[in-house]
Amino acid sequence: MNPVETAKGLAVVTGASSGIGYELAKCAAQDGYDLVIAANEAQIMQAASRLKEFGTKVEAIQVDLATVDGVNKLKAGIEALGRPVDLLLANAGRGLGDGFLDQDLQEIRYVVETNITGTLHLVHAVGNQMRARGQGRILFTGSIAGFMPGAFQAVYNGTKAFINSFSFALREELKGTGVSVTCLMPGATDTEFFNRAQMEDTPVGQAKKDDPAFVAKVGYEAMMDGEGDVVAGWKNKMMTAAANVTPAGTLAKQHRKLSEPESSKH
Q1: Over pLDDT 70: what percentage of the chain?
Q2: DSSP characters over the chain
Q3: What sign does the CA torsion over 98, 100, 101, 104 have?
Q4: What is the Cα–Cα distance from 150 to 261, expressed in whole angstroms?
Q5: Looking at the 3D structure of the chain, how many domains does it have?
Q6: Where is the Ketoreductase domain (predicted)?
Q7: Which of 156, 217, 237, 257 is catalytic?
Q8: Which of 22, 26, 33, 160 is catalytic?
Q9: pLDDT tier at 106 (50, 70, 90 boundaries)?
Q10: Contact 116, 162 (CB under 8 A)
Q11: Fewest CB atoms less than 10 Å from the CB: which of 48, 81, 101, 206?
Q12: For residue 211, what pLDDT is reported?
């Protein structure tokens, strides 16, 4: 039998060129789903080649999901397949280190437009289709960073606070519709994130990190089980529990110790 006949359905994964996104796509492919994967880097094509080894169909689309044009291009690519989306894994995200006033405003906007605006645009389109069909699963990649005021990572943490909160609200709104919403909240994970965020000279950038394959598996299984949220790793669970009872000012001070660049301390 060919993959068209054996595929469980279609999974769309954003930010899938590497890291957690790639591993989420791998989970879906291993589970028998055909894939549409998207990222704004050319390496999304290499990721597609590797994912095809699992025997399902893989469409790779290189788009910038921080832009309306990019999201529209992805939507058009999905629609061209003529198939409903069964799983939407909204994982695309961008980090940014350093003090807020020292960051470039264009880079700040890019983080917000990738992590929030583009994500909302895509989820609004696909979510409406899922609700109309009465079935579908949505996974957001939030972060435990969303529980902490992120000194020296203020914009990124703020966007993740938004995603964490938004996912819970959307989950409640979609109760009884057949569409489930799950939020995966990882901690520091061994991906390209810290390099792209220019945070390699920070304590958190240099510390030991979680395996993206482990994080993705935890998130994928939570989504398939219809859970509302999942924090990957016991250490991160402890940090999240502590964050819920710690004053915001204290959390911001603690976060500074993790994220302040060495260059800012002199």
Answers
A1: 77
A2: --HHHH---EEEEES-SSHHHHHHHHHHHHTT-EEEEEESSTHHHHHHHHHGGGSS-EEEEE--TTSHHHHHHHHHHHHHTT---SEEEE-------S-GGGS-HHHHHHHHIIIIIIHHHHHHHHHHHHHHHT-EEEEEE--GGGGS--TTSHHHHHHHHHHHHHHHHHHHHTTTTTEEEEEEE--SBSSTHHHHTT-TTSHHHHS--B-HHHHHHHHHHHHHTT-SEEE-SHHHHHHHHHHTTS-HHHHHHHHHHHH--GGGG-
A3: positive
A4: 13
A5: 1
A6: 9-191
A7: 156
A8: 160
A9: very high
A10: yes
A11: 101
A12: 83
Q: Report CA-CA distances (Å) from 214 to 56, 184, 218, 236.
A: 22, 12, 6, 13
Tokens found for residue 50: 């590797």
Q: Does the global pTM surpass 0.85? A: yes
Contact 262, 201 (CB under 8 A): yes
| Residue 4 pLDDT | 44
Q: Return mean pLDDT, the chain.
A: 87
Q: What is the pLDDT of residues 208-253, one digit of tens each?
A: 556 889 899 999 999 999 998 888 765 665 666 665 656 567 767 7
Q: What percentage of the chain has pLDDT greater than the value 90?
A: 67
Higher local confidence (pLDDT), 249 or 13: 13
Annotated catalytic, 156?
yes
Catalytic residue status for 160? yes
- HEC sequence for 104-116: CHHHHHHHHHHHH
State the CATH number of the domain containing residue 223.
Answer: 3.40.50.720
Q: Which tokens is 202 given?
A: 């920070």
Distance in angstroms (rounded) separating the CA atoms of residues 158 and 163: 9
Cα separation values, 80 from 73, 84, 203, Å: 10, 11, 45
Which amino acid is present at 196? R
